[in-house]
Amino acid sequence: MTKVLISAFIGSKNLGDEAIFKSILDNLGVDRNNITALSINEEKTQKIGVKTLFAKNIINIVRGIRSCDVFLIGGGGIIQDQSSVLNFLYYAFQVWVAKVFRKKTILCFVGVGPINYGISKFLLRRLFNHIDTAVVRDEKSKKVLGSYIKDQSKIHVYHDPVLNYVFNPSKLPENPYRNKGDYVVVSLRRWFFTLPLLPVFMTRSLNKLRFFRKDYDKFMDKISKDLDAFLDDNKNIKLVLTSFYDSEDLAVLADLKVKMKNQSRVIPSRKNISEDQYLSIVKGSKFIIGMRLHSLILGSTVSKPFVALRYSAKVDEFTEQMGLTDYSIHVEEYNSDKLVGSMNNMLLDSSKLEAGMQAKLSEYQKDNRKAFDLLKKIIN
Fold first, then answer.
1. Which pTM does this prediction carry?
2. Which CATH superfamily is domain 4-157 in?
3. What CATH topology corresponds to 169-363?
4. Which of 31, 39, 132, 353 is 20 to 30 A from 336, alpha carbon to alpha carbon?
């Protein structure tokens, strides 16, 4: 039997990354007894039914790659050096080890770029030509990767695997807000200060210091006022706050609620919600106001339209794919009138937009099934 080793941001408390991993597992068609995952929380990942190795142990990484038949990297936006050069070096090292041991190597539903630093560009050119196949999640990723890989036939463009997240609509958990009346889901994150030469955890810590949070405070002042304006315009609506990454998002959402005058109509986020619990909450909402990419993608699996607060190219790309750019804004081009108008328009248009989203979802899911069929052939 083919032994598969998977490496990504697995075992985290980030709902989006876990949804990516589960989507790949459920659609790849490989016996889970033959899958090992590099995880930062082995106990959590083992509950999904796969073997694990601790992802922060270099010896484990080398042993895992040496003993596997197929090395699969992804998915998610992990081939980039915008958040941290060290993040890129981590995955480049793994590709190098796979090259040394001559292992079949696959980039699986990854986002590629931005690539800003010379060391990253050098390693991409020297190491990533070794890969057997790359399935990327958008055209921009193909363009970036294609400038470093000689054999363009290795690169295949599909969509984010979370669009094929497997769930049973009739068995979703009970929606805790089903008796709360009409509500809109809000999912925010912190994304204003980056220093790619530092580890991500250090950048996150710096983001919380007063000296570095000027842009964050400015944004929070504006978004709280605009959400209040939206609630003033729509007296029957409440806001349900949802966290995708508790260690980061809960503090942001708490800051938001404190700044709002309509606090009685703002329901705080629950902790440690699962993917299915999020779907249940979103399914009962009018629409989503979100920053995190996978808060939008996972919500799209139940055809729920969204107003995206776009902070990166990956959110731009998905918003455009779903035909919702006119309802969304970029955080660097923040216009209060436009945002409030977009939310009001979305409230009016959400029902009719759901049908269009369902058609797009079916199309993208069909495309992704071709990608999974391709991966199955390569693995087997």
1. 0.95
2. Glycogen Phosphorylase B; (3.40.50.2000)
3. Rossmann fold (3.40.50)
4. 353
